Please model this.
Amino acid sequence: MKTAAKKTTAAKSESKSKSANGTVKAKSSAAEGLRELFVDSLKDIYWAEKALTKALPKMAKNATSENLITAINDHLTVTEEQVKRLEQVFSLIGEKASAKKCDAMEGLIKEGEGIMEETEVGAVRDAGIIAASQKIEHYEIATYGTLAAFATTLGEDDAVLLLEKTLAEEKEADTLLTEAAYNTINFNANDEDQDQE
Ligand SMILES: [Fe+2]
Ligand SMILES: [Fe+2]
Model:
């Protein structure tokens, strides 16, 4: 009975936020202008970067390849700097730094944890950690690219410089992960699979 009641409530709230033609109805708190959307997106990535400073050490602990452990730990240091850089961006645009939960990053981190649970320690888990990390980097690359474009449109030139700096670091992290994968890990993971056959 309870489940049915829940379903009805869910269906009701869904129909509330969607009009007949499928257009999503905006909340009363919805962003009206690009600037508001920009600030909202900054809060979102601020939450995401902070969440990563907690998730990355766990990934490093679960990795075995020295190459990968170094790449993750280096990126942790970079990520901590990126958190501070975002605080600078907030201050530059005259906003208080505040975090708003990023559903996408929460999902990507959860997926990474799932991969670790589903793999044995060693080359295969390392390959899984790289795959999960690269999804995270690509999300960050997309986000910072968008934020830099928004800041450009809004004439926030100093913010653009900071956002582009972080964007370059995210691309660099992605390249290092690709190298780690090609150099050692993915091939070793493949060997382990063959050993089991
Ligand atoms: Fe980052
Ligand atoms: Fe990153």
